Amino acid sequence: MPIENIPEIYFQNKDTSRDIFVYDFKMTSDVVKSKVNLRMNMFSFLQVGKKQVHFANTSMAVNSKQSLLLKKGNWLWTELLDTEAIYFCKLFFFSEKKLTEFLSKYTNDVKPYKEEVPYFVIENDDYIASFINSLSSNTFLNHNYSDALLVLKFEEIMLYLLNKYGDEFEYYLHSLISNEVSPFKKIVESNVHSNLKLEEIAFLCNMSLSTFKRHFTSEYNEAPGKWLQDKRLQKAKELLQAGELKASDIYLDIGYNNLSNFSIAFKNKFGISPTDVSS
Fold first, then answer.
1. CA trace torsion 235, 238, 239, 242 (10° rounding)
2. Paired sense of beta strands 119-123 and 51-54, if any
3. 3 state DSSP class of 110
4. Which controlled-vocabulary keywords does the entry list (predicted)?
5. Is 64 in a helix, a strand, or coil?
6. Which domains does the chain have, with CATH numbers?
7. What is the pTM of this model?
8. Other Cβ atoms within 10 Å of 26 Cβ, number
């Protein structure tokens, strides 16, 4: 079963820079299962049939009364639940750029959706059914105003769903905006509470110590030594406040070679000794 990158495989030419794209998708008994790498955020508006969609950590069954909004970056595979039937849906792709423009225009800054769910379930109603019927890949081909029409259709369904689902849908839309941490930050922040020295973290970043320090200061607006010390001392304070560990149990893990240096640094930062916290 080959893995297909969508929506690229649906483009009829080499122009893969489209921000909004519609595709009429049909799945028959000839192709009971398919694997997909989703490269754009996508509405899957189901019209006929039912299928099971498998994500990395979950799966769900979708019928003709439901549609899905799927986050880009999903690797998923689908299978027909009724192999005798035809599965038909409209796929409506949109870029992060268009989503950002829409959110800036119509919504406020909100916290991202808290649940780590790769999809949002939409219950189809008469309005959505009418909207789905208005979508067709043929309608938006070779037309002088195709792009403008697609933007209007995109805003139409987004506004309707915001009205229908309120904050829940708005939070989910904001979660679709990528907030990726750079590889450099991932390495640094995964070693914050380790006992690695700066030289060792720089090595993991494939940098000399001097280059690491410059890059760190550029990313965090603070010298790496002080930043790491503050983070590690704060972690030490939390561990001591929990009451199960003493300073002698944690100083090595926090990156100090001896208990005395740890105690001095701790008192300089918090004004009390580690023993006063844990007692």
1. -170
2. unpaired
3. coil
4. DNA-binding, Transcription, Transcription regulation
5. coil
6. 3-175 (2.60.120.810), 183-278 (1.10.10.60)
7. 0.60
8. 12
